[in-house]
Write a structure and sequence with these properties.
12% strand; rod-shaped; Hypothetical Protein, Haloacid Dehalogenase-like Hydrolase, Chain: A, domain 2; Calcium-transporting ATPase, transmembrane domain; alpha/beta; five-stranded antiparallel β-sheet; 50% helix; eight-stranded mixed β-sheet
Length: 504
């Protein structure tokens, strides 16, 4: 499941608000995740009876319920650990003896004590208020628990857990002592401000349930993501590879346990963040690849000199190389950092966690493919000048002569004009630049203009000729140079078209 991730999402305060309303952003994000081949499970304190149809309609792959006591994948029950009938009777009798209202959580329904609806209303309202819910004073118990049963059987053998209203924190402390065979907890606040106590199967957590599901699926913990907001979610946030806490509704302890915090509680932000992250990553890679393009002819120049035993003078001087690296190279390259993401970027599988930004593919394309094209055009200009002046019958122009300066200038022109085509090529991985819009990136357009102005200045201003060992070039040389960006661009557009056809 290398490319497929497994996502675990808490329900209350994370996936839905405290009136059971599912934000459109969450619905869209989950459907997009499943469309991209990822598996999505809710991981909740709710029992299956509280997972209403509108939640299943998202297209969930399954659920973990009862804070980890129940695990379901599709139609398969992977694990289900219940409170026994004897334990249930003990709990119900104890709560009644203390006058505490409660509800029993079963996959078959929620079963409330006699006065839970009236006694529970102010508690539910306070809980919603603490979570930042507007108009919390208008919320009713039946808004939060629309299918709660108020006259059902309370002595049961199908319970996942029990929640009860705390009259004081001492009720929770006493429950720990009274039920050593169960797991006692609180929710709706920490310590003395907790609103509810709960009792469930001992030694069960959301993390324990996730582990059981992963074993069933044959999946790796490295492929897991968890989203939660409360203290009960901490084991899940700690256990999964990436834990994300809600920034608005999330508790401080949940945020501390998480790897990331979703500051606006909007799942659409996750999609946007991933898209932006992928775009930034790709743009950095485009930047690197473009910078490498001109390194190949820069390396080819001394290599040709050395391999020829000095018969071929250095086709580029040191100052001309600096002109490329500091002047013409950098300005268009910066425009690649502002390139918008490609249309299919969110349909691409996630990159491997160990994938390096500077990898073999980037090096091969930058140095070998793009670099070789630039080198051929640049050296072609160098030898063209010599050819027009008698080579190969006459030796190549030696260093220090006017003809040598003109020949190296022509190689410089060949590199710069090739770069103009290459920066356009690097704007996309496979998508046609025509589809994107030739002039849609204003920063690149500006960079190309500045690059051309710098080149003209270096070639035709006498003062700069002396500094950069350049010389003016004539009409024939310009006729050679001007088509280079278009040829370079056309070759790459053809390659991308071939790749797109292979992907169909």
């Amino acid at each position: 499941m290398a490319d497929s991730k497994i996502i675990f999402i808490d329900v209350d305060g994370t996936l839905v608000d405290y009136e059971n309303k599912l934000p459109a952003s969450a619905d869209k994000a989950i459907k997009q995740a499943r469309k991209n081949g990822h598996r999505v499970y809710i991981c909740t304190g709710r029992s299956k009876a509280e997972v209403y149809p509108y939640l299943w309609d998202i297209g969930l792959d399954g659920m973990i319920g009862g804070n980890g006591s129940y695990v379901e994948d599709g139609d398969t029950v992977v694990m289900h650990q219940l409170i026994t009938a004897e334990q249930c009777k003990h709990i119900v009798d104890w709560l009644k003896s203390r006058g505490l209202e409660f509800y029993l959580e079963s996959n078959n329904g929620l079963f409330a004590s006699e006065n839970f609806e009236t006694r529970g209303e102010p508690v539910i309202q306070e809980y919603s208020k603490r979570k930042g819910k507007e108009h919390s004073d208008q919320i009713k118990v039946r808004d939060v628990f629309p299918e709660m049963i108020f006259d059902g059987e309370l002595y049961r053998d199908d319970l996942n857990k029990v929640s009860f209203i705390l009259e004081s924190y001492q009720d929770h402390l006493d429950s720990i002592e009274e039920f050593p065979d169960l797991k006692a907890g609180t929710w709706g606040g920490a310590g003395e401000i907790a609103l509810f106590g709960d009792l469930g199967v001992k030694d069960i957590t959301k993390a324990h349930a996730i582990d059981a599901l992963l074993e069933y699926l044959g999946a790796d913990i490295e492929d897991t993501y968890a989203f939660g907001d409360a203290k009960i979610d901490i084991p899940m946030l700690d256990y999964c590879h990436i834990g994300v806490a809600m920034g608005i509704t999330g508790t401080d302890v949940a945020k501390e346990a998480a790897d990331m915090i979703l500051t606006d509680d909007n799942f659409a932000s996750i999609v946007r963040a991933i898209e932006e992250g992928r775009a930034v990553y790709n743009n950095i890679r485009k930047f690197l690849r473009y910078i490498f393009d001109s390194n190949t002819p820069e390396a080819a120049a001394p290599a040709l000199y050395l391999l020829s035993g000095g018969l071929v003078p250095m086709p580029l001087t040191i100052m001309q190389i600096l002109t490329i690296d500091i002047g013409t190279d950098m300005i268009p390259a910066l425009g690649l950092g502002a390139e918008h993401p490609e249309d299919n970027i969110m349909n691409q599988p996630p990159r491997r966690i160990d994938e390096r930004l500077l990898n073999k593919k980037v090096i091969l394309i930058g140095f070998i493919w793009y670099g070789l094209i630039i080198t051929l055009f640049a050296l072609g200009g160098y030898f063209l000048v010599n050819y027009l002046n008698g080579w190969p019958h006459n030796p190549l122009a030696p260093e220090g002569t006017a003809l040598y300066n003109e020949a190296t200038t022509m190689m410089l022109v060949g590199v710069v004009f090739s770069q103009m085509g290459m920066v356009m090529n690097n704007r996309t991985e496979k998508e046609s630049v025509f589809k994107r819009g030739i002039f849609s990136n204003h920063y690149i357009n500006l960079g190309l203009v500045i690059e051309f102005v710098i080149l003209l200045a270096v070639v035709y201003i006498p003062f700069l000729n002396g500094i950069f060992n350049t010389a003016p070039i004539g009409l024939i040389e310009w006729l050679y140079a001007l088509p280079i960006p278009f040829i370079v661009f056309g070759i790459e557009e053809l390659r991308k078209k071939i790749l797109r056809n292979k992907d169909k």
